[in-house]
Amino acid sequence: MLNVYGIKNCDSVRKALKFLKAHEIAYEFIDFRETPVTQEIIDNWLEKCDINTLFNTRGMTYRTLKLKEKNLSDNEKRHWLAKENMLIKRPVITFEKNIIIGYNESQYQNLLLK
Predict the structure, then answer these.
(1) Angle at which helices 39-46 and 74-83 pack, to 10 degrees?
(2) DSSP string computed for 28-84
(3) 105-112 vs 11-22: helix crossing angle, rounded to 10
(4) Rounded distance, CA 8 to CA 112, Å?
(5) Radius of gyration of the chain from Cα atoms?
(6) Strand, helix or coil at 104?
(7) What domains are defined for the chain?
């Protein structure tokens, strides 16, 4: 079973869910707003991916908090992800021991349609 983390009104999350439904792939959706992601979960993800892949520098939250000006270290970024889940690039899909960050249809096809 896949876990899909994100928020319902995110375009990338919608595309990912549409892909999963179209290919009849079972998943559980975890909404950041209803069930915040903990530091422990983020640390687990970071064992499988780079902090700069997971940390969303293109979103409104990043701009609003003026984090670019703070020139954050990787450890500071890690703490910000747990403090403010909207800084996590969406969606995050976890399955088996794998993780996929963001929506990339070719990556989905290669990893999810086995």
Answers:
(1) 140
(2) EEEETTTSPPPHHHHHHHHTTS-HHHHB-SSSHHHHHTT-GGGT--HHHHHHHHHH-
(3) 40
(4) 21
(5) 14
(6) coil
(7) 2-112 (3.40.30.10)
Active site residues: 10
Taking Cα atoms as reference points, which of 85, 114, 86, 89 lies closest to residue 99? 89
This prediction has a pTM of 0.93
111 DSSP assignment: H
- Can you tell me the distance from the alpha carbon of 5 to that of 94, in angstroms, rounded to the nearest whole number? 8
Q: What are the pLDDT digits (tens) for 59-104? A: 999 999 999 999 999 999 999 999 999 999 999 999 999 999 999 9
